[in-house]
Write a structure and sequence with these properties.
This protein is an alpha/beta fold. It is built from 26 helices and 19 strands. Helix 7 runs antiparallel to helix 19 and helix 12 packs across helix 14. The two termini are about 40 Å apart.
């Protein structure tokens, strides 16, 4: 039973009663979302609220917040738990109770048995808070991937939490003030990551529970704890390659089918690639056995866009998408070009939705549009394969070959290069110099330092931000410094902060449109398996991403499954769209050069230089990775956000 919910609560640690007007204030902004059920619960100095959307037959009528009189525990939750059967067994729940038991009750029973260790046993997407009356403690957690948001305020005797920041800002004792430390990190990191620890927000007095963390609040203390680690997993070893593939298929199929519980239609985002294709294929097969079909949603460039990308890139992936759909069957496909939208046109609405400045402007308009389109088709679950790169489709061939080079496994290396050249094209020995530079970075010589001038130089100089980047092993480009590809992989799966902003968008769009966006490729069971098997399962016989390629035999057409030559690029047309609005955009950028508050944060010279180039040269639609365009868009987004204050 999954209930899509916006939750809120207040805990007066000094035991003073929670005023009714305060509970109304924190719940008020949640009325912007559609709801099947709105309920509150209070007890002395505690208030809990839930704004619920029912998307499964079992969830209809579920009561949240829920109070267990026997155990004296109350819960409010925004949760879908995927490993229900495993939990039923571990908690020894009677068989006749299992079908009707809600996910929130399951979380509550898990807490009763394992206390603060309970999130370790949960697989799914969740944010919840529990009031333990006997222990006089509030305890909550956010799921491993951070697919559901949970913000909180804690000062003196007041603790309050909410799915949205707006709910907290309505409380009279929470001051709406800029968090300059957050902006310093946001601007100092050149990549897609917002901040380093995932705790702070743009609002000084409001924090968020980071992904894979829990929070415990008592009369005297507020503490957060990371409840999961992927280090030191027990290795899995089989006698044959086929055994690895079969075990993976079992786990992956479970991850997909567990995400299909809905009383609404099932949809899936579909590109021309492996990950989304694998998810769609496994889902469509299962749904066919239930006499249901799968709706797919694909983004395509507008009709007036001329694809300038080289032969190894593809802006319009329809040839691969249609091949996948025809091969799988049981799919109703939908294509959207959102020709009337751009990264510029959607800024204000996206800032309202996300409540943060954001960096993914290139794809922002169609990510939002897909949610709207799926909602119009009656979709309750929207699958995707966004996070598969570090697990199901792990396997960079050249990095694997560099490992063979360092281990002096010459015969294996040349055998692999022979296969790889047949698959990708080109002479087999042509790649040896590049492989050597990957294996021994000193051969590449000293690399130029990344000059990130996007942040105001004085702000960077007068803060500790560079030292903080170093302590997190991150450079100013927003990338982890390590050259060890396996360590890099683990850091991405262990730290999770890089995923936080994208998942925040998904959570808040889901509330607006009453649908869950769910990713089986980032299922904990799948991740643990992929981290436990040998590296050679991911690169094999010239195939990169070899595990998913082998596992999708008879699930995907070979045109897609074995494609190593062409890669889709879904942001190639974003500058083309901007070009239509260039005069309006440049006019606004001229205005923000006079925004003194913005200029205390960003590098004025860099902004002026970027604007000068665009004024003289215009927007070159075939130069969609131009860093000047990124600087202008990010400054514009920050300026619009600041105006909201």
């Amino acid at each position: 039973m999954n209930t899509l919910s916006a939750i809120a609560g207040i805990y007066h640690r000094d035991k003073s009663p929670v005023p009714t007007e305060h509970s109304n204030m924190i719940m008020g902004p949640l009325n912007q979302f559609p709801a099947d059920y709105i309920q509150t619960w209070r007890d002395d100095n505690i208030f809990l609220g839930c704004h619920a959307q029912w998307i499964t037959p079992e969830s209809v009528g579920e009561v949240l917040p829920y109070y267990d009189h026997e155990r004296k525990l109350a819960i409010t939750a925004d949760a879908i738990i995927d490993n229900r059967q495993e939990l039923f067994e571990k908690l020894q729940i009677d068989a006749h109770k299992r079908k009707l038991m809600s996910d929130s009750e399951l979380i509550l029973l898990s807490y009763f048995k394992w206390k603060e260790d309970c999130p370790k046993f949960l697989v799914g997407d969740f944010a919840f808070m529990i009031w333990d009356k006997n222990a006089q403690k509030m305890f909550g957690a956010r799921d491993y991937s951070g697919y559901r948001t949970l913000y909180y305020y804690s000062q003196q005797g007041d603790f309050a939490f909410c799915t949205t920041i707006e709910g907290l800002l309505k409380l009279p004792y929470i001051e709406k003030k800029i968090n300059q430390d957050w902006f310093t990190e946001y601007l100092a990191i050149g990549g897609m990551m917002d901040t380093l620890d995932g705790i702070s927000t743009p609002y000084k007095f409001i924090n968020q529970i980071p992904p894979a963390h829990s929070i415990s609040i008592t009369k005297d203390t507020v503490s957060t704890n990371k409840y999961i680690t992927l280090k030191s997993l027990k290795p899995i070893r089989y006698k044959s390659d086929d055994e690895y593939v079969e075990h993976f298929k079992e786990i992956f199929e479970e991850a997909v089918t567990d995400r299909l519980r809905s009383n609404k239609k099932i949809g899936s985002q579909l590109s021309g690639g492996l990950d989304s294709g694998a998810v769609a294929s496994f889902a469509a097969r299962y749904l066919k056995s239930q006499n249901k079909n799968l709706d797919t949603f694909s983004y395509i460039p507008p009709s007036d866009f001329k694809d300038f990308t080289p032969k190894n890139l593809m802006a319009d992936e329809r040839p691969f998408i249609k091949s996948t759909i025809q091969y799988i069957g049981n799919i109703k496909d939908h294509y959207f070009d959102f020709s009337d939208r751009s990264s510029y046109s959607e800024i204000n609405e996206l800032l309202d939705i996300i409540e943060f400045p954001y960096k993914f402007h290139e794809n922002s308009f169609w990510l939002k549009g897909i949610f709207e389109a799926a909602n119009e088709k009656g979709i309750g679950i929207l699958l995707n394969g966004d996070r598969g790169n570090f697990n199901v489709s792990w396997g960079n061939a050249l990095y694997h070959y560099s490992s063979l080079l360092k281990k002096i496994k010459w015969f294996r290396l040349f055998e692999e290069l022979n296969y790889y050249s047949k698959n990708v094209g080109g002479p087999r020995l042509r790649r040896i110099p590049l492989i050597a530079k990957i294996a021994y970075p000193f051969l590449a010589g000293k690399q130029p330092m990344y000059d990130n001038n996007f942040i105001n130089p004085e702000l960077k100089k007068n803060t500790n931000v560079l030292n903080k980047l170093t302590s997190f092993d991150i450079n100013e480009s927003g990338s982890f410094k390590t050259k060890d590809i396996n360590r890099l992989r683990l850091m991405h799966l262990e730290d999770l902060v890089p995923w936080n902003s994208g998942n925040t968008l998904n959570c808040k769009l889901s509330l607006r449109h009453s649908l869950w966006k769910r990713d089986p490729t980032h299922d904990l069971r799948v991740i643990r398996y992929c981290l436990s098997i040998p590296d050679d399962q991911f690169v094999q016989k010239g195939l990169d991403r070899a595990l998913i390629r082998r596992a999708t035999k008879n699930y995907l057409p070979d045109k897609v499954r074995l494609n190593q030559r062409i890669r889709g690029v879904q942001s190639a047309d974003w500058v083309h769209r901007m070009d239509k609005e260039s005069d309006k955009l440049i006019s606004e950028l001229n205005m923000i050069l006079k925004d003194e508050r913005l200029l205390t944060l960003v590098n004025k010279n860099k902004l002026e230089d970027a604007l000068h180039i665009v004024k003289n040269e215009g927007f070159k639609t075939d130069d969609f990775t131009n860093p000047n365009y990124t600087i202008l868009m990010r400054c514009l987004i920050i300026s619009r956000f600041l105006k909201k204050f």
